[in-house]
Amino acid sequence: MADAPPPATESKPANPTTPTTPAVPDTKATITFDEFAKLDLRVARVVAAVNHPSADKLLKLTLDDGSGTARQICAGIRADYTAESMVGKLIVIVANLAPRVIRGEESRGMLLAASNVPKDAAADTPRRVVVLSPSAEIAPGSIVS
Q1: pLDDT in tens, 35-61
Q2: Domains along the chain?
């Protein structure tokens, strides 16, 4: 006589009050496909990262974006990532965002990240930021579509 299989275990649903539960998403204006198509989304590899010298929430990242010229961006991910943990990571960037000086450092692009609560949430609301990365190795400069 064969042994009976073990009883199935029930999984408990996630607690809806945990910090990883998304808040009600901000609704933004609808854009056309042509407007979206103006974004140049690319894969980049972080080749160097340091804490921003004059901003507690920012990391200064040097990227290989496949162009042959290093690109610098500033990213507000320091609460969730150390500079050391970012080196070598593949990330997704908006490559054609106009350059902007952030606290004295030029940022030439923006990395894509997800968050469980909006940036402007109350200061006591726990916020988690997760950098978006390709799920497999692919060359810096690869187009995201």
Answers
A1: 999 999 999 999 999 999 999 999 999
A2: 37-131 (2.40.50.140)
